[in-house]
């Protein structure tokens, strides 16, 4: 790497910064985990204590159905999962074609569509919340998971287009040119040549889209707050916070919905990061 | 030759048309409607009759917004919130990126762990922070009372202002800013790291050979290289924070003077059931954001050229 060797003081300074940074980033998360495995009574009696026993009952209480004395998080998770997977399928299917065309094909109006992609990616979403709410309630779709699905596809298409276009731009065009020379049609080219090499990009985009839909809170609140059986996991946790639910149960629920996203993010981290920071590397 | 041209033209449009259709339906159409709503008197109860009655155009929504303390208060809160958040997350990201610039054992793992707050679902993060700051059993208050001699617990998420050594401090707003810095600094760290990695090592070596010390290398070699991407990050974070709803609403629901613009839009729509007014607030927000976006595009052009 670089020839400027760090001095001993610089190394010590770095160690301190790294330790503080890790504490700052992970401390709150660790605190949440510790509290989730302590009985609620113990937490209120001794807020600074460490868990004396490993009590996992909060997780079960959070997940179980209301009928079984739980808080129904299991059902909220299923709702979230359905909407998030639907969003991924629709959003990626639409965007993979558009992103490829925007990155590779020289059609008339290409500059315009590329401009639209960037503009839409940066467009303030909150401004559109009001008309989207009105349109969907006019169609009778607020108060249904289908309405939420429409909104999530709408919210993720710009990001997905932007990310996948970056991935396609980073792939070498020579293979496709060779395939075209050999008389490949566009359909064959897409299925046999482009998709196989684009798989990492498509997967990374799909995961990112999944995370957005899985974590989304605002529209779920706007659409579904009065339909308890349709709550998504984030909405459920936020709403239960307003009831008299023991905080240990809330934290157990929070951790339960966090673990899957953290794991899949780290599996695809390299690709997602490169898709997001493209353009900053120049 | 022309036929190949035409074919490529046709396939291009064929492939982008689904994307463009979705964009038209979910971005352009709603945007047209928000303009209509902003300039007319529509309330939630009118939704079933929309499209069946002629629109009555008026400027009342904007007039009322301009005359209301809620609007100007929310605007000021939002600017403060977005400004502090973007500065804070850039500063934290910069420190992290510089500290992790050189390889050391376990760097990959440290980098990955630093991303956790960014990946965490906002609801989970807010639940943890609310517990952390809870006046009864939260860690911060328990620690403060046990070791720092606090007489009464501090309501971090509901206190508008508290005197610290005679200086009024907007407690709840600062907590929300801190939360957002915590969540968003990792992204700044990623962008800055990507940029730092593309700085050729030779520049630094040359500077060191010329007798530059570490501080001078940082000041005159590294920071100038980061300026463009830092400006972009600052602007992007400001644009994103300017429209934040989730983080603030989940932590405070707008208590303790943290009513940002997005919460104001939500209140106008849901609590006051006034679509026109909510739309007008949203339009005024997007006017400000539009100016910032133009700035962003100009900046990224310049960054692209240099």
Summarize the structure.
The complex is a heterodimer of chains A (282) and B (306). Chain A is 74% helix and 0% strand.
Notes on the structure:
Chain B: It is a multi-pass membrane protein. Chain B: Keywords: Cell membrane, Membrane, Transmembrane, Transmembrane helix, Transport. Chain B: Belongs to the binding-protein-dependent transport system permease family. Chain B: Its main location: membrane. The complex is a heterodimer of chains A (282) and B (306). With 282 residues, chain A is mainly alpha-helical. Chain A folds into two domains: 59 residues, no CATH class; 197 residues, MetI-like (MetI-like fold, Orthogonal Bundle), CATH 1.10.3720.10. Chain A has 13 helices and no strands. In chain A, helix 4 packs parallel to helix 7. Chain B has 306 residues and is mostly helical. Helix content of chain B is 73%, strand content 2%. The two termini of chain B are 36 Å apart. The mean pLDDT of chain B is 83.
Keywords:
heterodimer, A: 282 residues, mainly alpha, MetI-like fold, 13 helices, B: 306 residues, two-stranded antiparallel sheet, 2 strands, 2% strand
Protein structure class of chain B: mainly alpha
Q: What fraction, in percent, of the residue positions of chain B are helical? A: over 70%
Number of helices of chain A: 13
Uncertain regions spanning at least 5 consecutive residues of chain A: none
Shape of chain A: globular
Please, how many domains of chain A?
2
CATH architecture of chain B: Orthogonal Bundle
**Radius of gyration from the alpha-carbon trace of chain A, in angstroms:** 23 Å
CATH class annotation of chain B: Mainly Alpha
Mind describing the biggest β-sheet of chain B?
Answer: 2 strands, antiparallel
Beta-strand fraction estimate of chain B? under 5%
